[in-house]
C-alpha cells in the first residue's frame, strides 16, 4: 500500500474519493436533480418521473451509504497498514459536495491528494 500513496515526485498527504452522489431524503431530490440537469433542456415531466422514482424509495439513493462504507473501509485498511493518510469524500451532485470537500482539504493543509473516482 505504501507504493499507492507515493510517486516519483513525493508522497500524497490525502486520498480523495470522488463520486456522482445521490439524494438522502425527499428534500434533497429537487436540488440534486437541478445539479444533474443544469444547462440541459430536460422536460419538466421527465424530471417529475425521476422525482417519483426517488419518492418511491423514500428519496434516498444507496450511493452515499456505499461511499460512506468505502471511505471507512479504506481508512481502516490504510491504518492497518501503518499509512497515516486521511480519506476525504466529495460528490459532484449531492452532499458532501466536492467543492466543500476541497475547501475542507485546503483547511486541513492537504497539498497533494490522490483522487479515486468511483
Q: Mind explaining what this structure looks like?
A:
The chain is of the alpha/beta class. Helix content is 45%, strand content 17%. It is built from 4 helices and 5 strands; from the N terminus they run βββαααβαβ. It has helices at residues 26-37, 44-56, 63-80, 98-107; strands at 6-7, 10-11, 14-19, 87-91, 113-117. The strands form 2 sheets. A 3-stranded parallel sheet has the order 4-3-5, with helices on both faces. Strands 1-2 form a two-stranded antiparallel ribbon. β1 (6-7) and β2 (10-11) form a beta hairpin. α1 (26-37) runs antiparallel to α2. The chain is elongated and about 50 Å long. The model has no long low-confidence stretch (mean pLDDT 91).
